Amino acid sequence: MNPATNEVVKTFEPHTAEEVKQKIEAVDKGFQKWRQTTFAERAKPMQKCANILENDAEKYGRIISLEMGKPLKDGIAEVKKCALACRYYAENAEDFLKDEEVETKAERSLIAYQPLGVILAVMPWNFPFWQVFRFLAPALMAGNTGLLKHASNVPQCALAIEEIVRKAGFPDDVFYTLLIGSKEVNAVIEHVAVKAVTLTGSEAAGANVASVAGKEIKKTVLELGGSDPFIVLEDADLELAAENAVKSRMVNTGQSCIAAKRFIVVESIADAFLEKMKEKMASLKTGDPLQDNCDYGPMARVDLAEELEEQVKKSVAKGAEIVLDGGREGKDSAYFKPMILKNVKPGMPAYDEEMFGPVAAVIVANDEAEAIRIANDSRFGLAGSVWTNDQERGLKVARQVESGAVFVNAMVASTPEMPFGGIKKSGYGRELSYVGIREFVNQKSIWVGPGPSNKQGD
Hints:
Elements: H1 17-34, H2 39-55, H3 57-68, H4 72-96, E1 100-101, E2 108-115, E3 118-122, H5 130-141, E4 145-149, H6 155-167, E5 175-177, H7 185-190, E6 194-200, H8 203-215, E7 219-223, E8 228-232, H9 238-250, E9 260-266, H10 267-282, H11 302-317, E10 321-324, E11 327-328, E12 336-337, E13 339-342, H12 349-352, E14 359-365, H13 368-376, E15 380-381, E16 383-387, H14 391-400, E17 405-408, E18 423-424, E19 427-428, H15 433-437, E20 441-448
Parallel strand pairs: 3-4, 3-6, 4-5, 6-7, 8-9, 8-16, 9-14, 13-14, 16-17
Antiparallel strand pairs: 1-2, 2-20, 7-19, 10-13, 11-12, 15-18
Helix pairs in contact: 2-4, 3-4, 3-6, 4-5, 9-10
């Protein structure tokens, strides 16, 4: 379904239980060969993956736009970012996973990093290429094989990713896409060949996957929701902060786990900041996501826009004030114009819940200490940012914010070099960096004792 037009673009038949079973068995068999390959052998097709992503970025960016409404220019940028991850792991995986010598009483002792086997990835629609490749690149470079259960509204993206892997020259049996619904995921996790699961998605989906995998004693990495704080202190550059506040709230039409959602502003500069933020957010243009002049597109589905609208209504009914009015264009539309709410308090959805769309919640704090308290007053802990002209002060505040990442005077973003993941209800485990590639390997301790003595004349 194209969310910009509500037109059905294409329909798909889900894979049958037998087809799923065959694909699982195929990647399990493929693992036995793939694990024996060298890092150099794995790096060649991974580098080709990067080339394909770069050369055909517009083709794949267009698929993203048609399936989930992302502006084409942003879809192209997302595809090109995937190429960075492919190159990063192609160039660094061997170093990240080399034997680590440890000084002990043994003749020799080391930690060896060895692949686990088949990894299942359950991935979301909001960054339908990037979320997959940040799992795919490290998993395959580590010697694992993979299965992808993508969100049901982006099947063309899922199949395109499988196509890219094939074109790059990977063996057919190292990666498959499973076109199945969420109800079929449990059976895949329970299959003896599947050794671990990584999921990016909702709290409820993460809890279910973790529960099933836990019963099977299988490793999981969960990257769930976020309600990221954007802390603006009184000594911040307000122009810079307001500009990045709008960018961070509106990235992917507000449909990003690491988008800033709660804007916690020290009272002395709150009015000035809010005025700048309102002006910049009101100037954004929407329209056809395939056109260059589109700053933000529709939300990914009509029902998601409806849910966001309901959260706003409930917050306003409890006392939140609308500073920038916007909202849905019609009951059958997935388009949602940006909104800013202030006087947001505990007990309101805008304070307590994740607002997964273009609505900013502004919360005024008396001072730095209260800003930190409010930032931590959330069940989520994915990321956040701090804005101040004093770098050391920013670092001090960053250390006190309860989250997996904090950016000082910069918009939160994921990059191949840095670990990505959250704490509290935002999940556990890490993707990206050397930390991410070590999540799905056996960190094996090998201890070598003294050998038998060689006696003369034996």
